[in-house]
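Write out this protein's structure.
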Amino acid sequence: MNRKVRKIGFIAIWCFLAVIIAAVFTFSSKRFNDVKCSQIVVKYAGRQTIRLSEKELIRLAKTSNQQIIGNKMENIDLEAIEKMVARNGAILTADAYKTIVRDSTGYKGAVTIKVRHRTPALRIFSSNGSYYVDKEGFRIPVSVNYAADVPVATGNISTEMTISDLLPFVEFIQKNRFWKAQIKQIQVNSSGELVLTTLVGNQLIEFGTAEHMEKKFRNLKAFYEQVLKDNNWNKYNRIILKFENQVIAKKS
């Protein structure tokens, strides 16, 4: 009997606590729903090679066709804000969430936007404009607010060539300390062949297509080590690699 009474009392206590918690939650939710947004906060995620300013990101958020500052927190559409911010080509991901804090004057709301930028892999100057691309080939607009120290490609460049040839080519260069320091610009001629400008020696390297790039760079390295090792970097101004198993050097 005593055990049964204790069990009923235990259940009654938990029911009472559940009612209290539900009441507090309902009261708090109603109170929080009436809180208005007082600010937009910007946070950056990950390594930022380029970065849109907080001012620009807040401007993008405000173009989501809704009032944010001064609006009730419950009325703010976070998904719409994320979509508007992510429309900028420099943004890889945009996540928005709401926070409510209490100070001496009461409760205040804020919308926080956490952004992750794309990482430029190549800068392109072509008839289609000037822009960066990341390693997947997505275009990143050029801005006066940021710059990236990446290889430069100019000339007759299509989107298909960027993805199939230039990005793998640049990735190969960037992974090799010597070629990363030596190759400063890539030009694509009307035949779709690559002409490289070097830092040391100021030579033009007629590379041909990106096909068999590893073998061509290996041949070029051997030429440097055998022919140009005795400070002869300015002896030749053209080095031709586009013919199979040949390195042809020409003077001006």
